[in-house]
Amino acid sequence: MKVVLSLVIIISLAITSTAQVNMNNGFQLLENGQFSEAEIYFSEILDNHPGNKTAQLCYGRAVGLSGAPNQAIYHFQQMEKEYPGDIEIRLNKAEAYLWADRSGEALVFFNDLYQTDSTNFAIVLGYANSLSIEKKYQEALDMIDRALYLNHNDQALISKKYILLGLTDQARKQGQYESGHQFLDSIELWNPQDRDVMLTRASLYLTEQKYGQAQEVYHHMLEESIDVLEASLGHSYTSMINQDHSTSIEMAENALLEAATGTDTSLLIRTIITKINALGAAKKFTEAHKTISQWEDQLGNTLVFDMARSRLYFWQGDFDRSSLIYKDLMDVYPDHYELRVSYAELQFAKKEYTDAINQLDHAISQDADRVDAWRLKQRIQQDIKPFFQVSAIDMNDNGGNQSREISLQYQFSKQTNISPFIQFNHKSTFQNKEAIAAKRTNLAAGINWNPHYKISGKALVGFQRSSSFLSNLNNNFITDLGLQYRLNAQQNIGVNLNISSLDYNSEMVRSKTSVMRLSGNYFTSIGQSWGLYVQSGFSKLSDDNTNQWAFLSFFHQLTALKGFKIGVNMSYLNYGDTDVDLYFSPESFKSGEVFIQYNSPAKINQRWSVTGELAYGTQGSSFIGWQDSFRWSGQLNYKISDNFNFMAGIKGSNTASDVASGYAYQSVFMSIKVNLGNGLAL
User: Would you say 339 and 330 are in contact if contact means Cβ atoms under 8 Å apart?
Assistant: First the structure.
């Protein structure tokens, strides 16, 4: 925390041991902060009047404040020998210890002085400042209020401001955010529109993860032209968090224009990194890398530029390249806090959970007060915890079919790159018109597999039992095997093999028809907001029928309307044989639709989110001719606590490829997920 000490000039102008000496010019130099000039001035006075106590005090202050505090301490110690017990000399010496960053020793001296005279304003003020530097903020606040009672002046108010800022920082670290805001409110009562208060309040909001409120503070500072550079940097960061990439880049560029005209190289580099991050978040990777190279040519290679480059590769999905840079940097800077946290984030993305936790524990041991390492560790432990999930669906259609389904799943802790799970599923169906009831039950076990950060797989095998009062029990083997390969951050491909039964309605269950499906898929993102997904596959049914299908979705993420996505879906399927009575198996089926989808923008620590979708189009086959098609859905997700999540929704459709010919269905569904245990055991 930044602490500014008021310069209490405790010279008694009433001391006139040499009344003929006029030192007003020297006093003015001290008042104006021209300490080197004051040192020369009072040295010359002492050459002619070596016994002038006032000149000696002023000379000691000038020496200490011009950059030689230990020399000033020695000077005042020598004066004490000539004037033993003199309050003014002791007070100047105590303050010199503050100049020398020896606040612990200064605190002892100020305490002694306070015991001698608790009504001396300069003593009480110095005592308050010493307590503040030692981070004894509550004691400092009590003492500064006493100083203000003795003399309500600007110097004491400045000290009180920084004491309250210290209390705010202390409250932030302890998670007492409301108290922190109250301390800031206290400062604003006498010091509105204060730059330090605004920046501290914004920082407090950022710690609370209230990014919108932090952005409002930065926006106000820009409107009032209060520290435009810092306000632009903060506005850029909060805009990036809120995925407003154009504003984030614009604010970073404004800040860079300001910083480039100054002489503070560290501030310039921080501003450059802000722009690089803004470009990277907007997926303008080429421009971001170019920016790093341009500034390296001017300023030379630095740790922060290397970290920025590694972070860009991470965001691009080139984890190997990013990891190589981090490893090299760790060899040179093994105790760098930000480096360890950034490297841990990469390891988390690569699912190297143990290594990531070890990195974060090392960072926390270096600085336990900073929250980013704690939060990332919490995210990792939350992700790897075992969980239990129960889901239920109730569905009916206009063909007289009803079904109810319940699913239970237990996911074991992600201790390695293989995480096992078991699941149970039971479905009961009833055809109202034919009064046919049936049920089927699945019990399966599987694993999620991540042998490499680019490869993810799933393998499920199990047993299925189905029955109807019109047929005997039927036992089936079921399986679901899938493999996804991440080509890069923009593209991935996958294959899937699934064996299961047809169980939409009771007649399908009774028929004991099973199906084996083999499919492949490809996804690519195009630029910042476009995407393409393609899937194609082949199925063979147990009644020797076959079918092929293809599906294409092309979509665009709206930048002006956050959370909204629009697109076009097209599908095609055909069957070798047709069977109108049992299942929808036309010789060919085609459909096309336009859709709009909404996903409430993800926010860190968000408790609830909503999703919804509307689609309208046309579908046609030899069975149904051409007719309108529609789909709709809505879903609410609520995070009751870190370990308890609830989801509920409703949807409907008349898409013939999903259900029997001509039917339209509606369903309601819900899910409860409970995280268990403590995650990774180290």
Answer: yes
Check if the beta carbon of residue 9 is closer than 8 Å to that of residue 95: no
Q: Which two tokens stand for residue 161?
A: 């401001």
What is the pLDDT at residue 9? 43
Q: Comparing C-alpha atoms, which of 619, 622, 624 is closest to residue 662?
A: 624
- The kind and range of the H/E element at 468 are strand 455-468
Task: Tell me the residue type at 577.
Answer: D
Q: Which long-range contacts (CB under 8 A, 24 or more apart) does 268-272 make?
A: 268/299, 269/295, 269/299, 269/302, 269/304, 269/305, 270/233, 270/304, 271/229, 271/233
Q: Which residues contact 82 (CB under 8 A, 6 or more apart)?
A: none
Residue 324 CA: distances (Å) to CA of 296, 346, 362, 455, 556 = 20, 11, 20, 19, 34
* Backbone phi and psi for residue 153, each to the nearest 5 degrees, phi listed first: -120, 175
CA gap 508, 437 in Å, rounded = 11
What pLDDT, in 10s, does the model give residues 564-614?
A: 999 999 999 888 887 666 677 788 899 999 999 999 876 655 788 999 999
Residue 103 CA to residue 144 CA, distance in Å, equals: 17
CB atoms within 10 A of CB 265: 11
End-to-end Cα separation, the chain, in angstroms: 34
Parallel, antiparallel, or unpaired for β 564-575 and 589-599?
A: antiparallel
Both tokens of 25, joined, read: 């010019």
